[in-house]
Amino acid sequence: MGASNIEQELSLYNSSILANLNFAGSPATFNPSISADNPGEPWLKVRPLQTGDFHRGFLQILSQLTAVGNVSLAQFLNRFAQMRASGDYFVTVIVDTRSDKIIGSATLVLEHKFIHGCSVRGRLEDVVVDDTYRGKQLGKLIVVTVSLLAQRLGCYKMSLDCKDKLIPFYKSIGYVLEPGNSNTMNIRYEQPSAAVSANHTSGSEPTLPIDPS
Ligand SMILES: CC(C)(COP(=O)(O)OP(=O)(O)OC[C@H]1O[C@@H](n2cnc3c(N)ncnc32)[C@H](O)[C@@H]1OP(=O)(O)O)[C@@H](O)C(=O)NCCC(=O)NCCS
Hints:
Structural class: alpha+beta
Helix content: 10-25%
Strand order of the largest sheet: 1-2-3-4-5
Oligomer: single chain
CATH architecture: 3-Layer(aba) Sandwich
CATH class: Alpha Beta
Strand content: 15-25%
Bound molecules: coenzyme A
Largest sheet: 5 strands, mixed
Distance between the termini: 54 Å
Radius of gyration: 19 Å
Number of domains: 1
Low-confidence stretches: none
């Protein structure tokens, strides 16, 4: 099934929040000047992930970043629906409209805190540009897009993990290694067990009052 056969495509989030992002206020420099609204070519489009992007090579693009595995359409749509319902996932893509293919992607994830007055932190995840389109500012374009989106959505900061060789790339976009606070540590689970649902809405949990006062 081609992407054009999908009758009702859903967007992961409302595309209007990508309009008029303040690229002039970003520390990144673009030469020539481009933005999410005007990506430099009439056939380039920056937009939220859509359900039909399964057929536009979205997972193939991600496989240039890391192992994706054999993800079925049903699995993709299920994960898409979870992300969409949460309202915290802003998977943003670049499309080559000539071929109707996804050629780049980056994700902003919102992390809700109790600290800093119940603030929100942004996490930059899964940045990739198709290898035949690299070196044309599209990596910078997609990262700056989701970084400005984080700012627009009220995040107090945006963080990322990257390989050492990509530090210059992210520095050129305004990300800094903060002295004394620049370590990433991981623990890896070789054989993840079946996920246990932590959803409290389906059980016999008491309902929280909306207004506790
Ligand atoms: C990293 C990546 C997204 C960059 O995409 P791109 O479209 O080639 O990047 P741009 O053309 O916007 O490059 C922006 C700047 O970063 C530099 N840069 C790009 N890739 C770089 C790399 N791998 N190492 C060092 N610098 C790099 C460019 O030279 C350019 O510098 P300039 O602004 O001084 O000219 C792309 O190489 C990619 O998809 N890599 C594989 C996946 C990956 O590693 N993702 C990052 C995970 S943290």
